Amino acid sequence: MEETTTFHGLGHLFITIFLYCFSSFIVAPVITDISMAALCPGKDECSLAIYLSGFQQVITGVGSLIMMPLVGSLSDKHGRKCLLTLPMTLNILPLVTLAYSRGATIFYMYYVLKTLTSIVCEGSVLCLALAYVADNVPEGRRASAFGILTGITSCAFVCANLSARFLSIGVTFQQQWEFYQRCI
């Protein structure tokens, strides 16, 4: 590997990770409201939403524990960029269902899709991005590159939360639905 490798060669990765994290984090604050409206309309408390959320987190955690070594092995075989596309694409599917409709039936479809896709997507994007950085940056500069990637992820989190505070729920999901329709 050449020692002249700079962080400018990773610009495509940094922009992609920022957009991915921004789009993932912008919907997080409104998912609670959507869950409550779909599962327990008109109520202030909903134990079903709490139980479903906990169950989803357990399944996602155990599934990620099993899937991470497989994702790492596949990325060694087929390439980091190629495999990085898979979780980024899969993560769109559950949100498209909520963009289509927010009724109870569609919410359950979202819930199942989100649980299944989170098994593959949760954590794998950042792990694959860090592996890509490690492959393309000289050993002496990796810590800086890892810090920049983590900073970009944190910046996306802050920007998405600020944006979510100023956008309505309908606008957030409508923009994703229009993007999805343009892609097909």
From TrEMBL:
PROSITE patterns in the record: MFS
Swiss-Prot/TrEMBL keywords: Membrane, Transmembrane, Transmembrane helix, Transport
Coiled coil, from the record: none
GO CC terms of this entry: membrane
Membrane topology: Multi-pass membrane protein
SUPFAM superfamilies: MFS general substrate transporter
Localization in the cell: Membrane
Transmembrane segments annotated in the record for this chain: 7-28, 48-71, 83-101, 107-133, 145-164
Gene3D superfamilies recorded: MFS general substrate transporter like domains
Any GO MF annotation of the entry: transmembrane transporter activity
Domain Major facilitator superfamily (MFS) profile stretches: 9-184
InterPro entries in alphabetical order: MFS, MFS_dom, MFS_trans_sf
Pfam families: MFS_1
Keyword Transmembrane helix attached: yes
PANTHER family in the record: GH21943P-RELATED (PTHR23504:SF1), MAJOR FACILITATOR SUPERFAMILY DOMAIN-CONTAINING PROTEIN 10 (PTHR23504)
Protein name, per record: Major facilitator superfamily (MFS) profile domain-containing protein
